[in-house]
Amino acid sequence: MLNSSRKYWFDRNDDFDTQRRKKQRFLRNQKTGLDFEDEMFALHKSHQVLFITLNIKPCFRDDVNFRTMQKFRDDLFRRIKDARAYARERKRMGKPIQEHRRTILHDIRGLIWRQEYGEDGGSHHIHIVAFVSVRRRDHGSAHEDLGMEFVRIARGWGTFHHSARYRHSYRHKWGVATGYVHRDDDEKRYALRKLIGLYMAKVTQAPADRGESELFGVRHFD
Question: What is the C-alpha separation between 73 and 111, in angstroms, rounded?
Fold first, then answer.
């Protein structure tokens, strides 16, 4: 994996010290992301894995700066945390949430996120790899549900795209890294670890004035 990692941190316009710092940040992110993936499969034997990009509609991009996007991100994570806590409490009481009342937020066990600026004409966006309960049997609809949660949080300004829509393209980049993944499925887990250890760990497209803790992280919700 590391043999193909250079493009995810290297910029020929950077001086030597900047290149060194970027590579160090990339390697730290890579370790954090891959350790998290290991932990998620230690906790659960299988997941529905989602890969989604949360973006802003072109007509609203001038109204959304880094802090605005950060707030949308934090609001989404807060809602997931609250929904998971509610689901656990209902289960403890022996009154699980009725299926028709469950949302995608109740089923997200953990995620890896990266906030960036660039692509699509220059916009703030967030990449997410989410580990979801396998009660969600259709990862395509799970992607759509998560994307629509973001659209609502972003006051209708949000939009999204995901791996289920562009499965053929992503297959050629990393292999099939999303959908149902069992801990013993070496082929899918290798593809997933490439997605996490390369693309999600990258430090290109990062706003230069932001610390890495504002740009990359992992979240547990179990």
Answer: 12
Token pair of 96, please?
């699980």
Measured between alpha carbons, how far is 121 from 13 in angstroms, rounded to an integer? Answer: 21
In this prediction the pTM is 0.91
**Whole-number Å distance between alpha carbons of 95 and 119:** 45
Query: Residue with structure tokens 């954090």?
Result: 32
CA distance 190 to 118: 27
Q: pLDDT 10s per residue in the chain (222 long)? A: 555 688 888 788 888 888 888 889 999 999 999 999 999 999 999 999 999 999 999 999 999 999 999 999 999 999 999 999 998 888 888 888 887 788 999 999 999 999 998 765 678 999 999 999 999 888 889 999 999 999 999 999 999 988 766 555 555 555 568 899 999 999 999 999 999 999 999 988 777 667 778 899 999 998
SS3 32: helix
Count of Cβ atoms closer than 10 Å to residue 93 Cβ: 8
Report the distance separating Cα 169 and Cα 52, nearest Å. 14
Q: Which of 27, 29, 19 is nearest to 113 (CA)?
A: 29
Could you give the C-alpha distances from 135 to 78, 138, 139, 160, in angstroms and in order? 22, 9, 10, 23
Contact 114, 95 (CB under 8 A): no
